[in-house]
Amino acid sequence: MKSHGAQPAIGDYGLISDLHSAALVSSAGSIDWCCFPRFDSAAVFSRILDWQRGGYFQLAPQGVHTTERRYLPNTKIIETTFHADGGSARLTDLMPVRSDNPHDPRAVEASQQIVRTLECTSGEVRFSMRCRPRFDYGTIIPHVTSNGEHHGVAHGGADALAVYCSAPMRDVADDGFLADGRLRSGERVSAAVTYRSQTPAVADGDVDRLVAETRAFWEGWAAGCRYDGAYHDEVMRSALTLKALTYAPSGGLVAAATTSLPEAVGGPRNWDYRFTWIRDASFALYALSILGYREEARHFKSWLEWSTSGRARDLQIMYGLAGERRLTEIELPELDGYRGSRPVRIGNGAYSQFQLDIYGEVMDSAHLYRIFGGEMDPEYWNFLRHVAAFVIDHWREPDDGLWETRGGRQHFVFSKVMCWVALDRAIKAARALDMPGDVDLWARVRAEIRDEVLTRGYDADRGAFVQAYGGTNLDASNLLLPLFGFIRATDPRMESTIRAISRELTSPEGLVYRYRGYEDGLAGGEGTFTVCTFWLADNLILLGEVDRAREVFQTLLGHGNDLGLFSEEIEPGSGEMLGNFPQAFSHMGLINTARQLDRAESRSRPG
After folding, report:
1. Distance of alpha carbon 373 from alpha carbon 220, whole angstroms
2. pLDDT value of position 453
3. What is the distance between the alpha carbons of residues 264 and 341, in angstroms, rounded to a whole number?
4. What is the Cα 320 distance to its own chain's centre?
5. CB neighbours (10 Å) of residue 194?
6. Using an 8 Å Cβ cutoff, are 376 and 304 in contact?
7. What topology does CATH give the domain 224-604?
8. Alpha-carbon dihedral of residues 70, 300, 322, 256, nearest 10 degrees?
9. pTM higher than 0.90 for the full model?
10. Which end of the chain is less packed: N or C, by CB atoms within 10 Å?
11. pLDDT digit string (tens) for 63-86?
12. CA torsion angle for 468, 472, 478, 482 (degrees, to 10)?
């Protein structure tokens, strides 16, 4: 694993979750990020954003030489094996979760805990445990109190954390709790924390039960997967990651578990992704549906319906996990940021941007839900009719674009295409379900949009669809044009666009940038965008270039970490992950491309 001094690389982390919140665990056995009680709450452990100030929770052998790790099959339980001086030990990490129906997010029970066990598997090892809570993103140093040898409580502001260790532990001058000792083969030590609890985090006999319940939950959920293709392990890992990023009480899906992990180390492009983007809706519904997770798709669609309810003109590009609309962005200047990447931000000011593409994504979500067997609620259809009306009134306006840049509004080609998608899906639904609507008007404007995009969005001299009217820059979002059915990939205009993007927007390794040469109003640079590379593979499949698509896909799989997780971006050359982690959008792309490859390869088999 690569490190910057003592601080691990982003890809060094693994994700555990209880479908209310999540934690990141390093290969060294340190939990350096965790928010309680929700994904978007203030962090209790935040060392990933400030190596000195942020809190952490470490349990590991001393004198470690090598490590290897995995998720227990079909779970989000991490098992790390340490080879240390004198022996080996196995660390098991989880956030307890249980449910009588793992497919119904609302039935999930989470205890707001992290449970850890370290077992010596050979020889003898010395271990150390340190739990150093720092509430409110490291800005509150709590008061700590021991309640006997095995229990303690950390208090700070409105937060409290009960701490447990099966080995005798001691508090250290309001700096947390420490324990150390020796384990022989077959012996183990357990440690746990419980949020907002004055009582012991766990009792001595609880650990095995919590592990068993959590394992049963994840295995029960994984058993519902209907994918049996060539990339089963990778797809299952991505599906489990999407499930882990789901906020159970609402069914909403966070874009990533973190805030402010940088798009370039040391740079300012650091954003909070702990919210639910409308754009993710159609991609998530498709990914969940093709894997057989119709119940999860239904709950996410329900989240989408009640979060967006109201006037179509008030539709936002993102919402809070429970449908919150005001996601005010602030900076935390006291934090150093990941490897010195300032500023650290919480909240996301892009929530108020005007992005025309989201109207197409709302419509496409309803379309996908319908074709996978879901019912269209007449009341929601009335809202969708207003969405179509809004598109007709506003599609000619410039917008901020799907990449949430801050360089001013333009006539982005992808935004116009998604206006076409909005009307196209409205027409299809009205005709298929005999729903009321001005289908003739929708069809007329749909044709107008298509004609304009083909005229103004395609640059014949450039031989490509461009980023915005009047410009010459390429944009990887245009790889979505055939995926949304706007134009066939084999159309000469689209094929030449695919070739141009493959030639001009890719790194030497073949990874795809979102765009280059565009003044987006933001300082600093960024890496290649993970999901865009999946989109390139999808387009190559549509061109019939299955071998090359498989090569692109395999190259990208090689840039995931040892647990099969992907961040938002990848740094060319070093291969280090960049941006928030793990990112749902990246894993949606993996699932879709894997399925498209399977289908293409099955068609090419003789007989």
Report:
1. 23
2. 99
3. 8
4. 15
5. 23
6. no
7. Glycosyltransferase (1.50.10)
8. 30
9. yes
10. C
11. 989 999 999 999 999 999 999 989
12. 110
